[in-house]
Design brief:
With 259 residues, this protein is mainly beta. The chain has two domains: 2-54, no CATH class; 62-257, Fumarylacetoacetase-like, C-terminal domain (Fumarylacetoacetate hydrolase, domain 2). Helix content is 12%, strand content 40%. The chain has helices at residues 29-33, 70-76, 148-154, 158-161, 205-213, and strands spanning 2-8, 11-18, 21-25, 42-46, 52-54, 62-65, 86-89, 94-95, 100-103, 110-112, 114-120, 136-143, 146-147, 167-174, 183-188, 191-197, 223-225, 233-235, 240-245, 249-257. It is globular and about 50 Å long. Bound molecules: magnesium ion. Magnesium ion (MG) is lined by residues 64, 113, 115, 144, 225, 227-228.
């Protein structure tokens, strides 16, 4: 089931994708994620062209994982980490499908990073590995936009990862995807730049949820960005970046100048 948030005539609403169109529903997106499709109370039908898609959730935090693909570690000639390396993107980085990424004047190298995002459905703290996937509302696509020059200059990652618009998220939540075996790719202006599969993750989704929940409370709606495969590289003003995750969909964003 594909669930999304959208805006029409200035009002924020929730919908479910059915037969290529979208039916408005009366539930919040996290309520709907816990319900069978037949139980959702339906309202109007809209075509996707007539609505503005919003980011699927408004998390209190986006918890991101550093190096988490075996093929990326090989590309960088790095040893596999024995624990996930974590950092956080603030909620103010989040934009939705077809919103614009603003290229900050502080940076000369802004990179894309295609990632599978996990949306947490209910509060998670000290979660056991075998229970971890029960806390998932669904999955979506994420671009962990990074000012690479500032990441290297600063030695820690907060500034490089935290500019407004640096976390495109969407277009919707897929509630029924197996996160352990999906193709993931990044295209810039139609050219494939990253092409891998989530089966190459060093720490799978259930391990990440359990590990993070033993450090901090994951709230309903929080997002985990699960790391990026090989092939990261720069984007330029005017480029169109597309994260495509099998079984979920395509998250598309254009890069615009700060001016
Ligand atoms: Mg990343």
């Amino acid at each position: 089931m594909k669930l999304l948030r959208f805006k029409k005539e200035g009002v924020e609403k929730t919908g479910v994708i059915i037969n290529g169109g979208m039916v408005e529903i009366r539930h919040s997106i996290l309520e709907a994620a816990q319900s069978p499709l037949d139980d959702l109370k339906r309202k109007d039908f809209h075509s996707l062209e007539e609505i503005k898609i919003l980011p699927p959730v408004q998390p209190s935090k986006v918890v991101c994982v550093g190096l988490n693909y075996r093929d990326h570690a090989e590309e960088l000639n790095m040893d596999l980490p024995d624990e996930p390396v974590l950092f956080i993107k603030p909620s103010t980085t989040i934009i939705g499908h077809r919103d614009s990424i603003i290229y900050p004047y502080h940076s000369q190298q802004v990179d894309y990073e295609a990632e599978l995002a996990v949306v947490i459905g209910r509060e998670a703290r000290f979660v056991d590995l075998e229970d971890a996937l029960d806390f998932v509302a669904g999955y979506t696509a994420l671009n962990d936009v990074t000012a690479r020059d500032l990441q290297q200059k600063d030695g820690q990652w907060t500034r490089a990862k935290s500019f407004d618009t640096f976390c495109p998220l969407g277009p919707w939540i897929e509630t029924d995807t197996d996160p352990s075996n999906q193709k993931i790719s990044m295209k810039v202006n139609g050219a494939v730049k990253q092409n891998s599969n989530t089966k190459n993750m060093i720490f799978p989704v259930e391990e990440l949820i359990s590990f993070i929940s033993h450090i901090m409370t994951l709230k309903a709606g929080d997002v985990i960005a699960t790391g990026t495969p090989p092939g990261v590289g720069p984007m330029h003003v005017g480029d169109v970046a597309e994260v495509n995750i099998e079984g979920i969909g395509i998250l598309q964003n254009k890069i615009i100048s700060h001016k």
